[in-house]
Protein: non-specific serine/threonine protein kinase
Organism: Rhizophora mucronata
Amino acid sequence: MACALSDIHHDCSPPIIHRDILGNNVLLDFDNEAHVSEFGTARLLMPDSSNCTSFAGTFGHTAPELAYRMKMDETCDLYSFGVELKC
């Protein structure tokens, strides 16, 4: 799952911020390789902006900076990933 997040954050231009990383949104293929799915809430991270105008995600999994200040970057997905690891 970490590799899948790294791909959308670092191998895409501009980077994609998923905003709703949950176990239900990660699919495994026959080789047990993780693939991120459900990009309905995802946004492109443009170089000149880090803010979003609407809340998206699942309460309890959303990074505080996204939930309270609408500040969006790759760390928002990492926070959700950490919550999933703890669950």
